[in-house]
Design a protein that fits this description.
There is one protein chain. The longest helix is centred in the middle third of the chain and has 16 residues, at 27-42. A hairpin with a 4-residue loop joins strand 1 and strand 2. Helices cover 38% and strands 9% of the residues. The relative contact order is 0.09. The protein contains two helices and two strands. The protein has a domain at 8-41.
Length: 65
């Protein structure tokens, strides 16, 4: 990741000990990523039955409403 727009995020990750000075995940960063993935796998997505649905046209990769 490079560019000025990534710097605040990288600074936050460094301050939290999730990435090192080489911008790679630390052990704590790997543990945090595993926890996030586990949370995503175990959480149930909210469902609003009255919300409009989006269907994907898999042949052309376009969305249809």
């Amino acid at each position: 990741m490079s560019g000025a727009h990534f710097e605040p995020m990288k600074r936050s990750l460094r301050e939290r000990g999730l990435i090192g000075s080489d911008d790679r995940l630390t052990e704590a960063g790997h543990a945090h990523a595993r926890a996030l993935i586990d949370d995503l796998r175990s959480a149930e997505a909210p469902c609003n039955p009255s919300a409009p649905r989006v269907r994907w046209n898999h042949t052309s990769q376009q969305r249809r409403h």
